[in-house]
Amino acid sequence: MLQAVAEHPQGVGLPDLAAKLGLPRQTVHRVLGQLRDSGLLLRDPVRERFSVGPRLIQLSLSALGSNNPWAPVREALRELVDDLGETCNVGVLEGLEYVYIDRIESKWPLRIHLEVGYRAPVNCIAGGKVLLAYLEPELRGRLLRSRKLVARTPRSITSVSELEAELEKVRARGYGTNNQENFEGIVAMAVPILDARGHVVAALTMHGPLPRVTMESCEAALPRLRQGAQRIAAAWGMV
Fold first, then answer.
1. Domain 2-53 coded CATH 1.20.120.50
2. Domain ranges in the chain with CATH number 3.30.450.40
3. Residues of the chain with CATH 1.10.10.10
4. Which residue, among 30, 50, 48, 49, has the nearest Cα to 40 in the 3D structure?
5. CA 58, CA 40: separation in Å to the nearest integer?
6. Dihedrals phi, psi of 118, to nearest 5 degrees
7. Helices 126-133 and 160-173 sit at what angle, rounded to 10 degrees?
8. Cis check: omega of the bond before 211, within 30 degrees of 0
């Protein structure tokens, strides 16, 4: 049942869920109530739909963020960092925050040090823009208007309309950028990590300091980033 709900980012109603699972509505209603009470699911009382809850998100983050150094995902990420020479991270969306679930730093002495679990305002970071861009439009709209967008630097986009326009560009070109919007002097590029159905489940980002890393050098790394995203998806068993 959790898997069936997770397959509907915009939420799913009880009748559709019962039909999909081939179970009586009473049974589905009872189990949905238990999952909701445990925090694994959320219920939208207006639309009578259920969606992924905060506890399930936390469990997913813990699983994906395993620090096993021999895990295939870390191996793919480490090879990508060695190839590009810059720090790379994998992150997911949690509300209006982008959360690092894995990260490997470059070997350069000049770099920004952040830990796994680091959270950044979703509007200020390349991976956050990617994940927002591929959300169902109605859900994204509600999310962006749920509270004021945070500014980390003078370049941060804090207008919902301006951010929506930027997200349209992200979808059209298939990648997101961060031009000193989270930290002064740091630029980044991110690409989506897709499952077998083409749904975006996470983002893969490369970033580094100016002038060593520029938007032009990020664009040159785009093919390699996309290869890395495909390899990570395969390591997760999603393709």
1. no
2. 65-235
3. 2-53
4. 50
5. 9
6. -60, 140
7. 80
8. yes
Q: Cβ(137)–Cβ(159) under 8 Å?
A: no
Place of tokens 């590029």: 189
Please enumerate in sequence order all residues whose Cβ is within 8 A of that of 48, keeping only pairs 6 or more positions apart, or say none.
13, 14
**Does CATH number 3.30.110.30 belong to domain 65-235?**
no
CB atoms within 10 A of CB 132: 26
Question: Which residues make beta-bridge pairs with 92?
Answer: 99
What's 124's DSSP letter? G
Tokens of 75: 């191996």
Please write the tens of the pLDDT for every residue from 203-234: 999 999 999 999 999 999 999 999 999 999 88
| Phi-psi domain of 185 (left: phi exceeds 0; alpha: psi -120 through 50; beta: other) | left
Cα 189 to Cα 86, 139, 155, distances in angstroms: 11, 24, 16
How many Cβ atoms from other residues are within 10 Å of residue 74's Cβ?
Answer: 19
pLDDT tens, position by position, 76-86? 899 999 999 99
